[in-house]
Design brief:
Blueprint (H helix, E strand, L loop, with lengths): L1 H20 L9 E2 L1 E4 L8 E10 L2 E5 L4 E6 L6 E2 L4 E5 L2 H36 L5 H33 L2 E3 L4 E6 L6 E2 L4 E7 L3 E8 H6 L7 E6 L2 E13 L9 E8 L11 E7 L8 E4 L4 E3 L2 E8 L4 E6 L1 E5 L3 E6 L6 E5 L10 E2 L2
Parallel strand pairs: 1-24
Antiparallel strand pairs: 2-23, 3-12, 3-16, 4-11, 5-7, 5-10, 6-9, 7-8, 9-11, 12-15, 13-14, 13-16, 14-15, 17-22, 18-19, 19-20, 19-23, 21-22
């Protein structure tokens, strides 16, 4: 009775083992990606670069003498006009000097009056032969000295008044305050910037352009460009390249460019971000444009993942880049019209990886 039972168990075990051997190996899950079907177009004639609206002329306002700030009547963002009083220093020392200088002038004038009267009297006496020439000459010398004292005292008064006026800070031109460098009660020094003013003499766009992009875009002094507000591209105007830095900034690897604007829309306020569209230096045959995130590296060269729609497998294909833009790249070669390129999820892929997309 035991032997038939053992045989039955053995056959059942073998059946299970055979069944296990016939199962397919587990499949790797498909990676979800986003793809883009390549369509070659003519190379764009414009290259866009972001920049910032800035004042064409920016100046610092400062006092000419040291003192304690007692009044400040303007703040960041305020629009000011030429001649407007902006701040004051404690003027007590300068007022005392002004009073002293005026007292010296009053004394010198009274002495001049006495010396002049004495000179007139000596002249009359000398004409009547009632006094010697030496006395007349002394009177003339005293009058000259008195006049010199008056002249010197008048200069002292002018200097004192000028020093007193320097305790007040006035706007030198119309503009907008962009920075404040001192608070009430603070001791300020001569030439210390109390205000920074963006003058109303025009607006610029300031760019920091990579050397590589500078070679691709036709940025040259006097070249026209289009400028649009980043937040609303419908707000736009035109400008002219005014200045290009002669060298690359070693800390950023960029070249500074200033563009003067013509008619500045009100919404293009100081600090607003804009896009400057410059002409490309050249255009060629139709080329493919892909999002920058589609690009990866294969053996040190730029590459993209291409999807075989039939097998749903990806392969890495090296490409040649024509130019790099802010958020995209233009490819010179390596892919063709109709190729399906992975544009999101590239970091999850390896050769022959199966993918899924919508």
């Amino acid at each position: 009775m035991i032997r038939p039972l053992f045989i039955a168990v053995l056959f059942a075990t073998c059946a299970v083992l055979v069944s296990c051997q016939k199962q397919d190996p587990p499949k790797k899950e498909d990676v979800a990606v986003s793809i883009l079907q390549v369509r070659k177009d003519a190379v764009p004639r414009k290259i866009g670069v972001t920049g910032e609206i800035a004042a064409r002329t920016q100046t610092d306002l400062s006092f000419r003498l040291a003192g304690r700030l007692t009044e400040r009547s303007a703040d960041i963002g305020d629009h000011i006009v030429k001649g407007q009083l902006l701040a004051k220093l404690e003027p007590e020392e300068q007022r005392v000097a002004r009073v002293s200088a005026q007292a010296d002038l009053d004394l010198a004038k009274s002495q001049l009056v006495q010396a002049t009267r004495n000179l007139e009297r000596q002249r009359i006496l000398f004409s009547n032969a009632s006094t010697p020439r030496s006395v007349l000459e002394k009177a003339e010398e005293a009058a000259r000295v008195s006049q010199s004292n008056v002249d010197r005292a008048e200069v002292g008064v002018t200097t004192a008044e000028e020093q007193l006026s320097h305790t007040q800070l006035h706007a030198k031109s119309d503009g907008t305050i962009t920075a404040v460098g001192a608070e009430i009660g603070q001791l300020v020094q001569p030439a210390q910037a109390v205000f920074t003013v963006a003058e109303d003499d025009g607006r610029d766009v300031r760019l920091q352009v990579s050397e590589r992009l500078l070679l691709q875009a036709d940025f040259k002094e006097g070249a026209p460009v289009e400028v649009g507000l980043l937040a609303d591209p419908e707000v736009k105007t035109r400008g002219t390249v005014r200045e290009i830095a002669p060298s690359v900034d070693p800390s950023t690897g960029t070249v500074a460019i200033k563009i003067s604007l013509q008619d500045v829309p009100p919404r293009m306020s100081l600090g607003a971000t804009v896009i400057v569209a410059a002409d490309a230096r050249s255009s060629g045959p139709a080329k493919a444009t892909l999002p920058a995130q589609a690009l990866t590296i294969d053996q040190g060269n730029p590459a993209v993942w291409v999807v075989d729609r039939q097998t749903r497998q990806v392969s890495l294909r090296q490409v040649k880049v024509d130019r790099y833009l802010n958020d995209s790249v233009i490819l010179d070669s390596g892919i063709e019209d109709g190729d399906a390129v992975v544009v999101a999820g590239v970091q999850l892929l390896h050769p022959n990886q199966k993918v899924a997309w919508q």
